[in-house]
């Protein structure tokens, strides 16, 4: 059986590739949901991982839910309203809960259309880089449904409420250049340069002390719903831990020696 999600590690960088090109990397069954959960657990428990790149195989990043399954009312789209509700809760909603909680920085290398749940998946990443052929659409309304995978939470935090509302209420497509203008992506490159650009950025991230990357990401996540005084208190505690790591002292020595640090994750 073909693996639905490929896992490849090169030094401190893991590349996850959605591997369903014949379905435009659709997200609509337990195989892919569980694959994301397994990958996230593996990454979080492996201190050697410092950054993750997520991309799609073939010409699409992800077309989201399988519309044929919707038409035929099968898989996660079949059964009573109660059954469908639980299919979402215990199915595709595993992805935002697990992928968003990855402890290391994540980069979406958007290699083509990111539609519906595919657009939301890109927004679950910390950083997005797009190839010229990338397209984004919060297109649920076009099918008479709503964002069932957390898009109503992720998209406004990514591009602001007004533009998120425009994408959600129209379902219109946004090309790579407009996505850059709106802040949906931070960079647009030629298609053939996409993975090179993603890996270069990942390398710049991964060269830093791994504990600092994970703790900084934790603070950013908590800062989305914490009061300032609570976040400051949490920051003080995590900073105290950071000051007592070997990698912190190595970073200080590297600073004065004008060299790159050699970090061991300790």
Structural commentary:
The chain is an alpha/beta fold and 266 residues long. 48% of the residues lie in helices and 15% in strands. Helix 1 links the parallel strand 2 and strand 3 (51-56). It is globular, with a radius of gyration of 19 Å. 41% of the residues are buried. The model has no long low-confidence stretch (mean pLDDT 94).
Short descriptors:
266 residues; alpha/beta; 6-stranded mixed beta sheet; 12 helices; 48% helix
> What profile does the largest beta sheet have?
6 strands, mixed
How would you write the strand order of the largest sheet? 1-2-3-4-6-9
Distance between the termini: 39 Å
Could you say which structural class the secondary elements and strand pairing correspond to? alpha/beta
Proportion of strand residues? 5-15%
Per DSSP E runs of 2 or more residues, the count of β-strands stands at: 9
Please give the share of residues in helix. 40-55%
- Helices, by number, come to 12
What integer value in Å does the Rg equal?
19 Å
Q: State mean pLDDT (0 to 100 scale).
A: 94
Which stretches of 5+ consecutive residues score pLDDT under 50?
Answer: none
Along the chain, the helix and strand elements come as EEHEHHHEEHEEHHEHEHHHH
General shape = globular
């Amino acid at each position: 059986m073909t693996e639905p999600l490929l896992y490849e590690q090169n030094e401190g960088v893991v590349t996850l590739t959605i591997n369903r090109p014949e379905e435009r990397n659709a997200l609509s069954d337990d195989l892919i949901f569980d694959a994301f959960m397994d990958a996230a657990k593996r990454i979080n428990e492996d201190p050697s991982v410092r950054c993750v790149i997520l991309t799609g195989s073939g010409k699409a990043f992800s077309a989201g839910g399988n519309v044929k399954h919707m038409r035929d009312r099968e898989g996660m789209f079949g059964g009573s309203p109660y059954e469908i509700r639980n299919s979402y809760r215990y199915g595709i909603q595993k992805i935002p809960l697990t992928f968003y909680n990855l402890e290391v920085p994540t980069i979406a290398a958007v290699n083509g259309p990111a539609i519906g749940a595919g657009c939301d998946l890109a927004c679950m990443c910390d950083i997005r880089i797009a190839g010229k052929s990338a397209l984004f659409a919060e297109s649920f309304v076009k099918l008479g449904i709503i964002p069932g995978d957390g898009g109503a939470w992720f998209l406004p935090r990514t591009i602001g409420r007004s533009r998120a509302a425009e994408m959600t209420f129209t379902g219109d497509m946004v090309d790579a250049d407009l996505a850059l203008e709106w802040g949906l992506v931070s960079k647009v490159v030629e298609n053939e340069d996409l993975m090179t650009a993603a890996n270069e950025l990942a390398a710049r991230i991964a060269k830093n002390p791994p504990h600092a990357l994970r703790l900084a990401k934790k603070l950013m996540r908590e800062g989305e719903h914490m009061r300032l005084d609570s976040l400051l208190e949490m920051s003080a505690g995590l900073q105290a831990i950071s000051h007592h790591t070997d990698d912190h002292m190595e970073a200080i020595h590297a600073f004065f020696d004008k060299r790159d640090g050699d970090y061991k994750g300790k």
